[in-house]
Amino acid sequence: MADTRRFVVLGLGSFGTALATKLCQNGCRVTGVDSDPERVDDLKHLLYEAVIADVTESDSLKELGLQNSHAVFISLGENITPSLLCALHARELGAKRVIVKGITQDHAKLLKSLGVERVIFPEIEIAMELADRMTWPNVVDFMKIDPEYSFAEITTPTSLSGVTLREANLRKTFGISVVGVKDALSGKLHMFPDGEFRLTDDQLLVVVGRQTDLNRLRELD
Fold this sequence. Notes:
The chain is α/β, with parallel strands linked by helices. The protein has two domains: 2-120, NAD(P)-binding Rossmann-like Domain (Rossmann fold, 3-Layer(aba) Sandwich); 125-218, Regulator of K+ conductance, C-terminal domain (Alpha-Beta Plaits). The protein contains nine helices and eleven strands. Strands 3-2-1-4-5-6 form a six-stranded parallel beta sheet, with helices on both faces. A five-stranded antiparallel beta sheet has the order 7-8-11-9-10. Strand 2, helix 2 and strand 3 form a beta-alpha-beta unit. The protein starts with 5 loop residues before the first strand and ends with a helix.
């Protein structure tokens, strides 16, 4: 359950604050930490724990029980040194998962060498997602599974309206699998439809496949 999950957010700038806020709204227990008392004070009504501390100091981090959290998020501005120190200490203190907001590609390489699970570049990731949405407006939703495969929710191309999934044969033509079909008006989802399921132009296809194959499907009229 979400309310049993505990996260630690180190650094409450714009990214850290947005992350901590959403995690709290999701019912998670969030410890938010920053050296700026005003930032901590702004979120204390929302956080499970609100802590004023220098997160580059190992002694400060020891008090947070990082080893007992589901994940530790680090977002410490545009200077790579504090971020690296914080990540180093978090790993040494037994944090299971450490996810860091990246500053440069070199910063990301150093973080990976410390055992950081993931380095996030929010502006780049949002820009890429926005570019995809603007390029392919028929893509309603999109989620990467790994660097090669993704899930996507795509409006049914007009050329496929009225045909069955067997006739559309998307696996052979595009190399993708249809795992669900959603009615765009009612929101009703048909999971794992069989080959006789007939498509209409008021449906959304929930598909999974390689990014290159999904791109080809996106271009279908």
